[in-house]
Amino acid sequence: MSSLKDIAKRTGLSINTVSRAIRGQGYVSEGAREKVARISTKLSYQPNRAARSLRSRKNFEIAVVSLLGAGNSSGDQLLMEKFIGIKRRLSASSYEMNLHFLDMESDSESLKLELLEDIAGHRPSGIIVIGDGKPCKSIYRMMEAEKIPAVLISYDVIPKMDCVYIDRLMGVRDAVHYLAEKGRSRIAFAGFYGICCNRIRGYRKAVKELGLKEIIFSEPSYSCISSINLERIFHLGVAMSRDIAGTRITPDAVIAYSDYLAAGLIAGFHDLSISIPEEMAVIGFDNRELAAFTSPGLTTIAQPNFKAGELAAEMLLGKIDRLRKRVSAVGVPMRLKIRSST
Do β-strands 329-332 and 126-130 pair in parallel, antiparallel, or remain unpaired? Predict the structure, then answer.
């Protein structure tokens, strides 16, 4: 098994410099940091967390709690990307990630409380909570009351709580501006009130800036979207395509709530002989794998989930080491992944 001494010998750096680089604490030049990372990977270096814990009397484990509901009970690509971002940043500082799931549909209140008490009882160095709403805020407050540093990966800024959020509002706003630059003047949004409020706000912000007419398709019967599966969302997209095509002034572009809804819109427009992108440009949201396989390929607003996870871990490590003293919210910008649908 390789050691810090082995890495120091191979890199020509001091053991102290190697230690600082691996822990992510203290000053280390970028060149030295990259050299240590390369050699430690080559030597398959694994820090001895048990020894570190004994020396420092500190637990080098981070609890990551994700809430499961009907919409994501079978796992989710976007959630996994957040996990990977968290894992890689924590590993670089020799922390271990322990995953915990709260099933909001099945678990009783007593089971949920028992799990949280068990997490707190193991005294992790910190906790990252993925999600939004009252349950996540309650977990954050409970852990902070137990003197366990906490960070949220949320959907928006949460006052008085440390959080990382993906800036969905600006993502949709930028997509509308992109369509306008491409010559589109009747730009619609297809989504669901109540669960995509930031996206709708971003859309409204953009059309107001551009002086365009607001066109939103959101039927009341679609408001139950959080309790249905992805296949159902696709079929709702097909149904919405008929609503969009049946309006007096048909839009020449539409931004969808999600990639699955956008895929349904594309299928519906094909059935209606509406050509994409010549007659109708379509933009999705998320950049899921299926976006590359629609016909035509789907332009989408990509969620930087890996980056969000990485930044949440970075923020938490700062709290653990008491480098962060003020509550903060960090927004992660989205970007357009351009494909043939626009």
Answer: unpaired
Domains and CATH numbers, the chain: 4-46 (1.10.260.40), 56-166+305-333 (3.40.50.2300), 168-302 (3.40.50.2300)
Q: What are phi and psi of 215, to 5 degrees?
A: -130, 105
- Would the pTM count as exceeding 0.85? no
- Which stretches of the chain are DSSP H helices? 4-11, 15-23, 30-42, 49-56, 77-92, 109-121, 133-145, 168-181, 197-210, 230-245, 259-271, 305-320
Q: 319 to each of 42, 192, 325, how far by Cα in Å?
A: 31, 37, 7
* pLDDT digit string, tens, across residues 300-339: 999 999 999 999 999 999 999 886 667 889 999 999 999 9
Confidence bin at 250 (pLDDT 50/70/90): very high
